[in-house]
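For the sake of transparency, this paper describes our internal protein records without simplification. An entry from our holdings is shown next, in its original layout:
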Amino acid sequence: MDERTDEQRAAGSTTDSSTTDTDPDTGASETGGAGGEAGSEPTSGSDDRPRAAWGSFAEIQDAVSGLVDSAIRNVAPASGRFPRYDLIDVPEEGYVILFDMPGLAKSDVEVSANAGEVTVEGKRSRPVLPDGAEVQRSERTYGRFRRVVRVSGDVDVAAVRARMENGVLEVRLPRRRAGDAQRIEVD
């Protein structure tokens, strides 16, 4: 009978120096190698090797994910994909961009636009914790952010409008009308 723990089976270790192959369908094991003959059972006895410090693969996965998430946050806080947005092309009108910005006030955000892009910048501050409080897990990002959204160059920059409501920043970019071309003096 195979007396190994699930962790030992997953790691491929046995209770002696032999190797054990287990048929996943029948559960039968076949042992070979230095510690026994083919078909013999592993010897029972004490295992001098240290047991795994982790109870399950899920615990290991959570720990590794936490380390990776922490490293990413420390290298590039609040950058990349924040804030998330939807870009909507409204025919005959222009573009509407909806940015998700939960917990931010309009004073935390700056919007600028030119003919081909809209830039949203700001800062998301960490909440102040009560004395003695300790964060157990943090998935939100904090710090400065900048997001640039490119649109076609037919935007009337002078008519761009933005408003913040319920954690959503709405930026409206009307299209220039065909007859709105500017006259340019030739020097």
Notes: The radius of gyration is 31 Å.
